[in-house]
Structure formats: C-alpha cells, structure tokens
Known about the structure:
Layout: E1 6-10, E2 21-27, H1 33-40, H2 43-46, E3 50-56, H3 62-73, E4 79-84, H4 90-100, E5 105-109, E6 113-115, H5 120-131, E7 135-137, E8 140-141, H6 152-161, H7 166-169, E9 181-185, H8 186-191, H9 204-213, E10 218-220, E11 225-227, H10 233-253, H11 255-258, H12 262-271, H13 276-288, H14 294-312
Helix pairs in contact: 6-14, 10-14, 12-14, 13-14
Amino acid sequence: MSGSRADIHDNPGWAAARPELSVLxxxxxxDPEPLLRRLDTEGPALAGQVELILLDDGTGDAxxxxxxxxxxxxxxxxxxxxxxxxxxxxxxxxxxxxxAARAGSWLFLDSDMKPDSPRFLQxxxxxxxxxxPAVAFGxxxxxxxxxxxxxxxxxxxxxxxxxxxxxxxxxxxxxxxYTSNLLxxxxxxxxxxxxxxxxxxxxxxxxxxxxxxxxxxxxxxxxPATHMGLDTVPDLARKFDQGAANxxxxxxxHPEIVQTYPSYKAARALKRLPSLPLIRRLARGAAxxxxxxxxxxxxxxxxxxxxxxxxxx
Length: 313
C-alpha cells in the first residue's frame, strides 16, 4: 500500500506466533497502553492464539512511540506497532492494519475501548472455533465509562442508540456495526474492504457493513467493551460537522437502506424548512447550555446533527 512512511516494531513474541485472531488497534493522539495492559491479562492463557497489531496514524509523538515499544516488549501477547509518518485517515488506516494481520479472523478494536469481561479475547477465540463467523459485532457498553458531568450528554446519546443488546441489534444487523469491537473473517475483507473515499469522522464502518450484509451473514453477540473516550458536547458537534460529507456519501451509495434510518428521515424533514439555519443555531446553543437538563441537551444535539446532515443531502 502506498502512503506515508511506516516504522515497524515487533515484540519478542511476534516472530514465532501462529495466531488464530489478529486484534487490530488504530489510534491517533491517544495512548493505547491501558488497553494493551488489559488485553494482556489474557495473554498467558491464550498461548499465542491472539496477536495485537497497533497503528499510530501519524500522531508524531516520539516519546509516545518509545514508551509503546517498551510496553509491547513486556507483553505476553505477540504484538506489532506500525507508526506512520503522516495521517492516512480511518478507512485507509484500517485497511493498512489488515496487511500486517496473520490470522484468519481479525478483531477491529478502538484504542479507547475497555473490555467488560476478563474473558473478552477468549470469547472471540471460542466463537471463531465454534462458528467461524463472517462478521460479528460484540457490542458497546457504558459500564466502565467516566461519569464526569461534562460527558453526561454523550452518555445519554450512546446509552440510547449504541449500547444495545445483541438480540435487538440482530433485527437490523448492518446498522449496528462499528469498528470499535468488530470481528471480520479474512476472506470477507478480501472482497469488501473499507472505502478510502471516506475521510474524517464517521460512517465508513456502517457503509462497509451495508455492502457486506448483501453477501455475508452479520452476526451479533454480547461480548461488549466500554467506550472510555466519551466526548464533550463541543467535540461531538465538531464530529457531526466533519461527518456530514460522509453521511451524504452513504446516502448516495445506499439510498434504499439509508432512507429507512431515523437520522435520514429527520434530515429530510428539516431540509424542507426555510428556517433551517436558525434551527441549527438554536439546537447547537441548547445542546451547549449547561443550564438545561441532560435529556433536553441530548435531544437538541440530535436535532443539530439532523440539521447539519440536512445541509449535506
């Protein structure tokens, strides 16, 4: 794959391992060391069945790189760190991670996730041995997430729309697919990789799942990890701004699917209103206001997202 220059560091256990599962962890300006320590508690029991592959997508922090190399060298799990000289983006970065993967199944796991079960990796290994699924999503939770007041709105949003049990997710399997805790079989990714046309934040994983679901079964299980990296309202609003173009791309590529989504229906309804710019400003202001109840701010932020998307479609 062409792109930025890559520095590769393997720990002592890497060369001899013959893994059944490759855990793929991209990060940018985050510190994945807490996740590494948590995963490595299962290392001795897994006996080389699982490898970790980390991709620093252009952070440019030499001190962090040095510290992570030392951390990898102390792990029981075989591990590789790929450090890029420049950012390549979420889709390209994840595609690059798969090049280093040696196992037949891959687990995409975000660096700010924290597994809820002490047998998190073992559960995935057992699932592969039993069912060898094409695609499986393990789920989100807020079990271990910070409870700071500044993250209350994100907690409310995530709890309502993302932290969903497997039985409910399975009703619309392609909709509940996020690359934060996602198992993918190698042959599936060989025919359906992430679209590098997606840049910035959001929707590249959902769009990928829409394509995959046409050819393969998308399974859902309850093996959740907590999303530790909750955002403040200003940060979420910026992400929604960045994600508008990606949302429009999904609409263009998969109109028949997206038209059933509440986010699309809300955006279409708002687009017809001449007061859309005013609605967008008022919704953002209400979401940012610490004087309003959390549920009201969460509703206002959803309204703001729909108004931003309305401008893009």
